[in-house]
Amino acid sequence: MLSAQTVSIIKSTVPVLAEHGLEITKTFYSRMFARHPELLNIFNHANQKQGRQQQALANAVYAAAAHIDNIGAILPAVKLIAHKHRSLGIKPEHYPIVGENLLAAIQEVLGDAATPEIIAAWGEAYGFIADAFISIEAEMYAEAEGAEGGWKDFRRFVVDRKQVESDVITSFYLVPEDGGAISSFIPGQYVTVKVNIPGAKNTMLRQYSLSCEPGKPYYRISVKREDGTSNHPDGAVSNYLHETVKVGDVLELSAPAGEFVLDLQDTRPVVLLSGGVGLTPMVSMLNTLATQGGERSVTFLHSALNGNVHALREEVLAAAGRIGQAAKVRFVYEQPSETDRAAGAFDREGRIDAAYLAEEAPKDAVYYICGPVPFMRAMVQALKANGVADESIRYEFFGPAGTLES
Ligand SMILES: Cc1cc2nc3c(=O)[nH]c(=O)nc-3n(C[C@H](O)[C@H](O)[C@H](O)COP(=O)(O)OP(=O)(O)OC[C@H]3O[C@@H](n4cnc5c(N)ncnc54)[C@H](O)[C@@H]3O)c2cc1C
Ligand code: HEM
Predict the structure, then answer these.
(1) Residue nearest to atom 13 of ligand 1 (CA)
(2) EC no. (predicted)?
(3) Would you say 170 and 227 are in contact if contact means Cβ atoms under 8 Å apart?
(4) CATH code for position 185
(5) Domain residue limits at 299
């Protein structure tokens, strides 16, 4: 337990640290990587470059510190991060490295304002927060390893099939190289894929939602190729998977993780709302509802630029067909092509907005949302404007968690 004095120092310094939050975490990362270059094999360099990871860590440390006398209040947030950590293979021995460099960064940025008393209190508080993460992650590792067909860290999977799903999305069917069973998962969960790209200095880790339903002898991921622009390089892993990885090659996978999951006990209508490649967890959920959902009402709303980039279209229609009357599918294209028009490939031209949601989706439903951040922000705002309760809205970020507040 932390002393009352430590708690009071932490609480009174949180606003100061939060104010310098980004500067501290940036200093922290550059210090840490200079001293522990091996950690560059774990962290996503693109997220670092864009500042997204720094922001996520800064937010988490201050949120934890602000609740230091009642850490239970932020348990859901801690669990979400712990899932990601477990899928990345973060271990207890990594925590002191982060702690030491974070404290040194606080000292460096705040200078004399960070008195020895303040630094000592933050050292204690960090240890307390780290212990909470370590124990939750230990449970998660044990669970991943103990599950039937489960494993602890990374396991080698062979690409059994590679399927082009659209101009930009390709699926990979992955089977374990050892020929053993694979653990089940809850629709909506993701795996971390580890790759060693020839010529790259470090291994790279990326998360991909499982787009198949559980219970198959394989996992399937569906990956969008992230093309670069004049000031952004091509996405490293997605391009490598698309261009170089072929049938028979090996990818290393974590066991499935994540809390953005379909609750099959819930009998309320469910709305699966996706933009672009954000449809991957939704397809897993839809297929699962088709086999296990009974009479439950399901609305699948998907927004894509046009038919050329729209993946898994036939699979979605087939799953909805198996559900029958209780299922509704709507495709919304922002810029349909002439071919899309001729084929009647979409239900609405433009974007999904509040009025369309009110028209097509039941208000008393539970909503699962995934897509680009601006899409998710617009959907959450529209649903709230339509009177949908916060508790009925769930979403997944395809990157470090951020905020959807504007
Ligand atoms: C839980 C979860 C589930 C996910 N599920 C899926 C899924 O089902 N399908 C899917 O396709 N993706 C999914 N993702 C996203 C995926 O993990 C990767 O982020 C994505 O494939 C891009 O990785 P990459 O290595 O190709 O790109 P990266 O190399 O990581 O680059 C990402 C972006 O950053 C830009 N960038 C890179 N370096 C720099 C730089 N130096 N300066 C400025 N910009 C830079 C790139 O141009 C690119 O736009 C998921 C992510 C999460 C967290
Ligand atoms: C108490 C200490 C820690 C806190 C509060 C913390 C917090 C976070 C947060 C908020 C995220 C983003 C999660 C998401 O939304 O995706 C994250 C991701 C991550 N964390 Fe931690 N973390 C801690 C310790 C560690 C340690 C010890 C390591 C290993 C050295 C580590 C490595 C990572 C990595 C590699 C990611 C993913 C980064 C990315 O893909 O960009 N973390 N952490």
Answers:
(1) 208
(2) 1.14.12.17
(3) no
(4) 2.40.30.10
(5) 270-396
